[in-house]
User: Fold this.
Amino acid sequence: MFWPVLIQSNAPSRCAPAIKRETDMAGRRGNTGSIFQRDLQIHGSAEWGTRPYLNKRGYGPHGALLLGYGLPIHEGEGAWPVTYGGARHLLTVAPTRSGKAVSASVPAILSHKGPMVVIDPKGELAMMTARYRRDVLGHDVYIADPWNIACPQLDMKPARFNVLDWLNPDNDDFVEDALLIADALIMTHGKTEPFWPDEARALIMGLILYVCSTLSEKKNRNLGRVRELLNLGEKEFAAFVGGEFEQDENKKWHLVKPGMAQSPNKHVRAAAGRISGKADKERASVMSTAQQNTHFLESPRIQASLSQSDFDFRQLENGKTDIYLVLPAGRLTTYSRWLRLLLNVAITAVSRFERKPEPPVYFLLEEMGALGKLDVIENAYGLMAGYGMQLHCVAQDLSQLSDLYGSRWQTFIANSGVIQIFGTRDLMTAEYVSKLCGVGTVESLSQNTAELRASLFSSPHALTREDMVQSRPLITPDEVMTMHPAAQVLILANSHPVSCFKTAYFLDRRFRHKNGKPFFDVHPHYRNKPQPKAYDFTSPKVNVGRILDEYITGG
Assistant:
């Protein structure tokens, strides 16, 4: 029978019988203070969560989200589901090609009955789950898919969202929301001097305020127009900001065409003053930074996707709306700002709901590292759990989080109710997981013999026995990195850690209807192949380890 190779420190020690024999002998000799009577938690009390323990802590079979299956201990037992039904955020840490979609993302989408926002590189999650959420759960499903990857497979039309439609010049949040969009557009890398990105944000914010509040721009209220303004020549841009003037025969200047400086909106006028007040070289550098961060808006596909709105993120409040954001994997880095834009708007919109959806809006953030540092995600992780949203971030390793968020990266650890780790080969991740799992106390018994020079009062042979208790990590970094690909470690809030099996949605009967038909659509790559049998992983007759070992490999 296959078992994940993990250290079960709470299993009975092999040297316990020997300890007991020695203690009994000492007791018969009247030595009740024997050295063998020890505190077996003296060096640490870490242990793996067991089925009864996890049931008491609320991680038994009745939670909404399936995390995996615990190992059966006794003959005649089946594997037991480990689930989560809390409101805190989730973090999955696993490298590429380790089965994140099979064991984490698809099960989450098929399990969550409330509204969802899914970042979906490659469009595979939409292809496999969108019809289930539309046809079975009865949700309104929108797939923002600029490159039309997933929609043809589903006979659906790609949805568009114009982020500037979200702004209202008469709203008190108008300036804040414009800055939020500008912040999503400007990405910083490493220890970049903050002045230039900050000034570029302010410039873009000013242009957004102008486009959204100026009557003559009513038909051009989109980011494509903002990009056009950034591409103006030096003299044209100066005239756009300050207005165009002509001198009459009396040498008096008259305004011919108003610019930002003549806007009735005070915030637009303030932005114009900020731009005009810069020295030529400084203004050129700020313009260059703003242009560099908006190159992606030149794409006709992105322009079309941002031109109009087929949905509004405020629809998520009704509890029956799902939105997939799809990009080709090869364009994820170049066009990640598009994802950042929509995600910024989505999280902010949900945070303002008057009524908290129940179940909450579930944000599944695949390939979180490709998004770059987003303050709105960091803030949501620290403040928004229980406020109508639940974030599930998927990262390749903890080093990725550390690089993006610097000293603040551990907020993702501290505020996650579930941390799911499998398949990692990153040393920092392995060492950190080992420390999170803690240290236990183990017993050891050693016996040594030695040849001694014979003497009148000594035996030529010496036998020494030594038994001791010592500390040992519940799981060492090398054990984390060499787990079987079907095994995982779960770090759960207010609980011992768990070593258990992952699931595989296409093998698990809980993701099938009673007639055996799957909830999900078969991935296009496998539609012409025989579909594997589904199993009840909790049945004593089902060897979960052997089944997973056949389908889940380390490649």
Summary: The mean pLDDT is 88. Residues 16-22+41-161+309-439+475-551 form a domain with the Rossmann fold fold (CATH 3.40.50.300). The chain has two domains: 16-22+41-161+309-439+475-551, 163-302. The two ends are 22 Å apart (CA to CA).
